[in-house]
Amino acid sequence: TGMKAVWKLLSLPLRQMPLATWLLVVCYVASLTAMVVDGRLPWLLLAALVIWFWHILAGTALRSAVRGDARMLPYFQRRLGQAGLLDLALTVVLTTLVALTTIAPVASHAALVCSGLLLIAALGLAMGTGIRALMLVWLGLIAAGWFPQFLKRVLQSAQQSMLTPVALLLLAGLLVYLALRPLLKLDDREISESPLGTALGGTPSRSGTRVPGRPRTRWSRLFSGVLNSQAERYLHKALHRYQRKPSERHRIALVRAVLLPHDSPQAVLMQFAIMVLFAAVYFFATHAASRWQVAYVGAYAVIIGTTRFTTVGRGLVRMRANLAELYMTLAPVTRAEFQAVLVNSLTWLVGESLFYCLGFGLLVDLLMHAHQPLRLLLAVGISGLSAAMFAFAAYLVGPESSSGQMIMRLVLMVFYVALYSLAYWLIGRLGLELGAALAVLLIVPFGFGTWWSARREFLRRTPRFDVPL
Is this prediction's pTM over 0.90? Predict the structure, then answer.
């Protein structure tokens, strides 16, 4: 029974993210095999990269699985510790042993390699659980970008010091402690209002909603409180307008205030301002403007602007049981009428996504001093509109499993880049007026047609109120 519990904890990433887990397993076995056959240092670096990603998945899976009931199980912390030791044996220890026997330079730095791999694993676990101590790591990376020569001298001295492995082990232990302490702490936890909510500062789970829990920093708790207050006022205003003048438009606005509590215009502006602040700090701190090309960053702006639909795809599955009460409250004449209310309420996100795309495109123009700012802004706006409609359609009627949605997200990202590249090329090739007009004719109807087809398919479907497994 004990080993069965240990195996269940160790296989959490396989249960929750099977595609990514199997991909990492294949890469890990391939890297170890390549070390045995070839015996070169790059294969050890590949194995370290796989260990890092694996522990990011492990931290994410652990964060979504460790809830109040699970933490009260008998011997839970003991089984969790045993699972951690087994994980280290299969990743860090095994990689170190293979590297020692196959790569000659590693033999003289065995302790440094082992402690370095352990630190990489701890860093991945910390990134997966989302601890705020990672802010210190981020600041350290920024400082390394500002003082590269100083960092080079520090690394050279650390490589020859006998205390470096001890320091790495202590840092890894600190990261593991900071990662697991909030998960194992028993306290009263709040519940998020809607699976489609986007309160910053909460802890996102793999289902796209916040894991029930308080925000972990004072600033995020304050910002979440402001968003929740804004959502409450938004709901009261929508209810007052509907009671004063019942109409289909006001009913859709009321349902939208219930389903999307943190997507009012004021809340969207607040969240966008926070994201712009972090983006500006990152640009200035890492000298991104001197290292990146403006055209590539524009594609990234489209990807970031459409990330809101990821929560929608997961939230629609998670909130099925809650939709039964909404169905009884609305009392629609037909099932298609209820489906129409849902899709019309969520269509607001297309405009919100376009606002984010244009806002990030304008930010890129300002921070990177683009030579053709209007070209980039037009390309981002045209491709962002089509990408938003296409993403909405995909998450509305697309796959519901976690692996299916992961594949769909990767395909959508490639599709976003293709749309942006086409629009950017047309505008640069044919000029602003003709290129933009042709891009609109080629790109926007495709997104609109996809959205309209998905809407018709969604209206034909029967509403589902079953609890997702």
Answer: no
